[in-house]
Amino acid sequence: MVDTLTPAQRSERMSRIRSGNTKPEVLLRLALHRLGFRFRLHGRHLPGRPDIVLPKYKMAVFVHGCFWHRHAGCKVATTPKSNTEFWLEKFDRNVARDSRVIEELEGAGWRVIVAWECELDSPAKAAAYACEIAGRVRRIGAA
Ligand SMILES: [Zn+2]
Predict the structure, then answer these.
(1) Mean per-residue pLDDT for 77-95?
(2) Please, what is the angle between helix 123-142 and helix 24-34, to 10°?
């Protein structure tokens, strides 16, 4: 097969593919869709605007960035060495908001799933995560 792309063109094309389809949130969405789930994106009327909403199961899924939302024990959740005070306050606010949002949703009868970006950084991991969600949904159905 004749390769008609210059290396620059190829790398440009690859980066476009990457930015479009390998974001953890997109990977999880694709994997859920493949399992037959139908969902809404960014439930605007819900606290915290969950990234993926499965109305049928009253399930809200957040895909949290490990750095901003402070994934405990994650290597991505570093603290910048300069302006440390500023960052710590910012992180505290993010974490406090996250738990408030989860409480509000659960209080309204929603099941909340928090997925971390590092758990979804490949299509295989996203597929495994989607299967876990499917398992939870089956348990709800059986209950
Ligand atoms: Zn993480």
Answers:
(1) 95
(2) 50
